[in-house]
Amino acid sequence: MYGYIIDIVLIKYLKGNDLMKITLPETAIDTLKSILKDNQDKPNNIRVYFAGVGCGGPSFGLALDEKKEDDLTYEVGELQFVMSSDEYSQYGDIIIEDTGFGFRVIPENMKDQGGGGCSGCSGCH
Question: 18-110, superfamily in CATH?
Fold first, then answer.
């Protein structure tokens, strides 16, 4: 019985420490800073969110948003990222790639699987 209580406390402690990690190149940091500068009337947190599942696997997006109570946070290059703790527990750390035409947002554990794009199943056409 006591072990169960300790587990709950440990989970809350870990979530409170925001152990989330986001990796992105300097070009993406610069672009996101520019977006924030151009949108000063909007929240200054960058939300990583689950946008659905396509033939290439789960898709993620970025949006300017307020921090919510159950969010985890991560700061990199003076940027504050937020993500739902439920989504983080399901998908883990995030990589943001700058494609030159936008961003590719993928879970770190799927970076070698080619997720986030069309896999050629013709389901999108």
Answer: HesB-like domain (2.60.300.12)
Whole-angstrom distance, CA of residue 27 vs CA of residue 91: 24
Q: Give the separation between CA 2 and CA 6, rounded to whole angstroms.
A: 6
- The tokens for 31 are 């672009």
The strand order across the sheet containing 57-65 reads 57-65, 45-54, 79-84, 71-76
Residue range 35-45: average pLDDT?
A: 95
Task: State whether residue 79 is helix, strand or coil.
Answer: strand
Question: DSSP class of residue 75?
Answer: E
Q: Which residue has the tokens 């947002």?
A: 105
- pTM of the shown model: 0.75
b/e per residue 54-85 (b: at least 16 CB within 10 A): bebebbbebeebeeeeebbebebeebebbbbb
CA nearest to 71, candidates 53, 89, 91, 85 = 85
